[in-house]
Write a structure and sequence with these properties.
It is a single chain. The chain has one domain (8-251). By secondary structure, the protein is an alpha+beta fold. Helix 6 (201-210) runs antiparallel to helix 7 (231-237). 33% of the residues lie in helices and 14% in strands. A five-stranded antiparallel beta sheet has the order 2-1-3-4-5. The protein contains seven helices and five strands; from the N terminus they run αααβββααβααβ. It has helices at residues 8-58, 64-67, 73-77, 161-164, 174-177, 201-210, 231-237; strands at 86-91, 105-107, 143-150, 183-192, 242-251.
């Protein structure tokens, strides 16, 4: 017997197919969102760990004698001729030593509209697209640049004289005792994950090489457009995942009577 076909089965199948497609699309989108969250979380952990590793090397007791030597991390920047300058180097995991003056650079405001970066050469700045490995590990995921300088920002001294001299030796005349005066040292560790950014290698290299880590513009200097940004701000503007840790140390030479 012939029966009239109304096409209801086809309509039901198409509706079910549409529902399955929507559910599948939502599931894929949710999975991608979860993957992005996990990737970002992993990236932040890598950035934090590498910045911490650089800071730990700076304050390592085993490296204290080397770091306070005349050409060491702290010894070099606390001389009268170098106060206000940033000693910059790239923390390279493949290097045999954490710091080497032969692969360090000075960044400083001298005059004009942009900082000068070539007093010690430009080998200290982290570089992408280089035959040399400037990454902190063999995974080539994270790059960390370190800078050290004497804290020359005296704005905190306006709070009171107790803040202005809080880092000085108490009960000791440094000149009479023939010891070094106390200095506040700023250490900045800036880490990035270049692979998680669409910024060009040249733009990232310029952020590391052309900008100060701590921007303290001298009186009478008008910076060129964009040059008043720190390394971290420059990288953030490019959309590069970045983690910056700043640590202040009170470098004091103790005097003991025996």
């Amino acid at each position: 017997m012939k029966k009239q076909q109304t096409g209801a089965t086809l309509i039901v199948v198409l509706i079910l197919l549409l529902v399955i497609t929507v559910i599948g699309t939502l599931a894929i989108r949710s999975s991608l969102t979860s993957l992005n969250i996990a990737t970002n979380s992993q990236g932040q952990q890598l950035l934090l760990q590498n910045s911490d590793a650089a800071i730990f090397n700076v304050e390592s007791p085993n490296l204290l004698q080397r770091n306070t030597a005349y050409d060491g991390l702290f010894g070099l920047v606390k001389t009268d001729a170098n106060k206000g300058k940033e000693l910059v180097f790239c923390y390279k995991g493949t290097a045999t030593s954490f710091y080497d003056i032969s692969r360090a650079s000075f960044m400083q405001w001298v005059s004009g509209t942009a900082p000068n970066n070539s007093e010690l050469g430009v080998d200290g700045y982290c570089k992408l697209d280089s035959s040399d490995n400037f990454f902190t590990s063999g995974r080539k995921a994270v790059m960390t640049q370190v800078s050290i300088k004497v804290n020359t920002d005296t704005s905190s001294a306006l709070v009171g004289l107790d803040r202005a001299f809080e880092h000085m030796q108490r009960g000791t005349d440094a000149e009479a005792a023939k010891i070094d005066k106390s200095e506040k040292m700023l250490v900045t560790a800036t880490s990035i994950v270049p692979s998680m950014s669409s910024a060009s290698d040249t733009d990232i290299n310029d952020c590391f090489k052309l900008h100060m880590n701590q921007v303290v513009i001298p009186s009478g200097v008008t910076p060129a457009t964009g040059m008043n940004k720190s390394v971290s701000q420059c990288l953030q503007d490019l959309g590069v995942p970045v983690n910056t840790q700043i640590t202040e140390y009170n470098l004091t030479q103790a005097f003991e009577r025996t």
